[in-house]
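We modelled each protein-ligand pair independently. The example shown here corresponds to the zinc ion entry; the chain sequence is given first, followed by the ligand as SMILES.
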Amino acid sequence: MSLQYEILGRPGDDNALLVRVDSGQGVCRLLFDCGEGCLHTIPFGELQQLDHICFSHFHMDHVAGFDSLFRALFNRQDQPNHLWGPAGAAEILQHRFRGFLWNLHETMSATWRVHDITPGRNSTSRFELQEAFAIAHDEGTTAWDTVLLDLGSATVEALQMNHGTPTLAWIVREKTKTNIDITRLASLGLRPGPWLKQLTTAAVGQEDPLIEVGSLSVPLSQLRRQLLVETPGASIAYLTDFLLDSAAQQQLATALRGVTTLVCEAQYRASDLELARRNYHMTTQLTAELAREADVGQLVLFHLSSRYTPGVWLEMLEEARAIFPRTTFSSGWNLETAS
Ligand SMILES: [Zn+2]
Ligand SMILES: [Zn+2]
């Protein structure tokens, strides 16, 4: 599978999500949130290759591990440093950058860009290590529509939700892959050759060019019909810390339709609905209903409240499964086998 994920952190502790998108030419790594102690299991070498760090919001349990991450990356020059978050991201993260003593930094150089994301707007601020991160250079605001970030083989979307403060829900979607069906090639008696490249690269406009295949001349559109197969990409959504009222349910059921993996918070059990609403959080029941309505491939529950015992967490898993059977915890947690 070319889209892999790992839930970071333990049940009841801070959590985060690492997503690896393998395009075949290289791996793009995205980290969603950065709570306390979440990075211990990521090898240092991989930490240094993170491409994008995307925050849902900046409550402590989602950003408390940022110092460790920044320590590993602060002077990274061999690839861009991008941080993404809801409105106020640049201001809060600049405080994090500035929370250390910087001297001798004039001889070093690294650039960090922080993107404040609001619906349809991306405001970028640039910070320089050489300046001890003292100046927020305004790089302007750009408009975006549905897709916030194009990674080449995948796209990243962000939806603004309500946690009493704006939070971002994130969706990573691999693009549909177009491949040549080699077995069909043989059954049609066509010999492979340089012409195969034209199948995926040549444009079919109003004219339908003839492709030379050995001694034959075959219309490009016909070859494409016979030989190309489209494989839909995998997708993963990261949802945490917001009120799942009926408007949000409706919005997300559409946005998440058919998503392969939904990673979603399970802060509260179903009977604590009032508490969940008051704190702008979800319950297992609401989460599972969303998964069912959006018809996702699987639901992975994380960000469990430490107010409950492990026994209650397992009951919460069952609550969700009663509504949406394809629900699990991170397999690395071993919660079910431990009971
Ligand atoms: Zn929160
Ligand atoms: Zn939280």
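Residues 59, 61-62, 241, 303 surround zinc ion (ligand 2) (CB under 6 Å).
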